[in-house]
Write a structure and sequence with these properties.
Layout: H1 38-56, H2 70-73
Length: 79
């Protein structure tokens, strides 16, 4: 099951479904809500952060033994 709360900016909307729902009969219901539940927003925010972290994990670098040396960084030949 998926639940998405959004504010569309046009009258045509495309929804990406999980692979587990492909080929199955589904029901889509759209209705106006007066107040967005804070827990739903928090859950969506948490999932979005997890997705971003998962995508960026391959670019992470371990800097535990690194010490910045300002003198070494500024030691270059000037013309």
């Amino acid at each position: 099951m998926i639940r998405i709360i959004m504010t569309p900016d046009k009258n045509c909307l495309t929804i990406k479904l999980p692979d587990s729902l492909v080929g199955k009969t589904i029901e889509v219901i759209a209705f106006e809500i007066d107040q967005i539940e804070e827990t739903i927003i928090a859950d969506q925010k948490k999932k979005r952060i997890e997705d971003i972290n998962k995508a960026l994990n391959k670019h992470r670098v371990d800097l535990t033994g690194f010490k910045f040396d300002r003198d070494e960084a500024n030691n270059y030949n000037r013309l």
